[in-house]
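Help needed: design a sequence for this.
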């Protein structure tokens, strides 16, 4: 009786988890990774004078069940981002100032409006289509659910009830959160994030911006990789995948060919265009790849002189939408800040001058001495930052990749049901689910 074999494309969290799961069932697993490192869009690197900084995924939480299991499994520890003294936000060219509490209070009412309907729409947050699958669902509820994927995430604020300052404040938050323009952002994704956070904006902020791994994401993905017995081939990109109900043939860019019973592709939606699929992917999947996600933004690390305990926001037309202090370097009399913006072309991640211009919008007391990051949108192996959804893509996007009638499968944060796209938890969830389904399908019956 032959041992089932699976090729995994990508050595990020989803690929590594899937490999470990498949190997535990006795499968033969090979991982091919286009980059010269593991981790995917999680990448702990030394920047800004040798400081370990996260180029991609950063924050974790005990209410993210899949990543917390791995944190526990490998004995990792977490610590909080620093508390903030001063908050600044911009509206109509005017800089407003207050405390972080003032900012949170101002945002709270806006978020409640944006989150409206989240309890009805997502009774089971890790099964986001539950009310569509339930034949007893109220037809009127289903109609409103489907309509909630249309328009912009900020449309609900443009009713005359909210001031321009309030709308600009929400735009700052969600331009960073969606990593792209709010004008094209699906309102339903924000409601889903709320459902995953007990419908509380404070908990959502805590899950996505508060706690980090003491040994960095690298400490976690390297620990998982150490438990994978099969080969992880770096610098090995895939050019073509032939797939059928009986098996797969994977052609690498060097022309070599690998055969297996199945293939799990963990590349983000933005990178699927680098692979030629035969037969071609279904039209619904091709359309999502052609349209891309809403994730065209960036993450930047900025070192400034002196100690600055700040959080700052600006609407999406500014280069940086969210900026906050992350490390106080007392021995250097400096502060490292992390920033997010909605347009990766609006800033040069390696230019001190470009970063200085971006932070000057909040006043003149921040002097940039160094900066850095990774342009995930320009990176052909990702083609985007984390996967956030355009209007219409909650129902006609990531879920299209769950449908297959061949041995080609997709896994990764972009395809997760829970924390879809935004955090590592979704990548791990998707890797486990995809692997278990293949095990059930391919494991020899006794």
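Sure. Designed sequence:
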């Amino acid at each position: 009786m032959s041992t089932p074999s699976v090729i995994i494309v990508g050595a990020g969290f989803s690929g590594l988890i899937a490999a470990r799961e498949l190997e535990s069932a006795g499968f033969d697993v090979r991982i091919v990774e286009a980059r010269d490192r593991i981790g995917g869009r999680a990448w702990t690197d030394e920047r800004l004078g040798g400081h370990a900084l996260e180029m991609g995924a950063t924050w974790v939480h005990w209410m993210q069940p899949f990543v917390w299991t791995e944190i526990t499994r490998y004995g990792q520890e977490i610590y909080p981002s620093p508390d903030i003294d001063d908050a600044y936000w911009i509206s109509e060219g005017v800089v407003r100032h207050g405390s972080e509490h003032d900012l949170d209070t101002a945002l709270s009412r806006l978020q409640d409006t944006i989150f409206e309907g989240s309890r009805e729409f997502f009774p089971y947050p890790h099964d986001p289509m539950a009310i569509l699958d339930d034949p007893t669902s109220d037809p009127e509820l289903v109609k409103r659910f489907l309509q909630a994927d249309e328009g912009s995430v900020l449309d609900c604020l443009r009713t005359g009830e909210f001031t321009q300052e309030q709308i600009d404040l929400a735009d700052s938050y969600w331009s960073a959160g969606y990593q792209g323009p709010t004008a094209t952002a699906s309102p339903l994704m924000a409601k889903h994030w709320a459902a995953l956070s007990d419908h509380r904006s404070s908990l959502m902020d805590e899950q996505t911006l508060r706690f980090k791994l003491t040994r960095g994401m690298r400490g976690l993905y390297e620990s998982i990789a150490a438990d994978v017995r099969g080969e992880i081939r770096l610098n090995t990109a895939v050019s073509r995948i032939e797939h059928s109900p009986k098996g797969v043939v994977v052609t690498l860019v060097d022309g070599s060919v690998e055969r297996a019973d199945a293939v799990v592709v963990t590349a983000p939606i933005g990178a699927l265009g680098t692979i030629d699929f035969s037969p071609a992917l279904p039209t619904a999947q091709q359309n999502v790849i052609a349209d891309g996600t809403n994730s065209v933004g960036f993450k930047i690390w900025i070192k400034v002189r002196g100690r600055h305990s700040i959080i700052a926001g600006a609407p999406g037309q500014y280069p940086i939408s969210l900026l906050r202090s992350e490390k106080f370097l007392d021995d250097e009399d400096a502060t490292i800040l992390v920033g997010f913006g909605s347009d990766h072309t609006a800033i040069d991640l390696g230019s001190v001058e470009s970063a200085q211009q971006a932070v000057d919008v909040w006043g003149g007391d921040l002097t940039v001495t160094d900066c850095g990051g990774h342009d995930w949108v320009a990176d052909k192996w990702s083609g985007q930052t984390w996967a956030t959804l355009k209007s219409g893509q909650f129902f006609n996007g990531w879920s299209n990749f769950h449908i297959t009638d061949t041995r080609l499968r997709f896994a990764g944060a972009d395809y997760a049901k829970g924390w879809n796209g935004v955090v590592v938890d979704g990548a791990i969830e998707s890797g486990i689910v995809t692997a278990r389904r293949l095990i059930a399908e391919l494991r020899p019956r006794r």
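The first strand starts at residue 5 and ends at 9.
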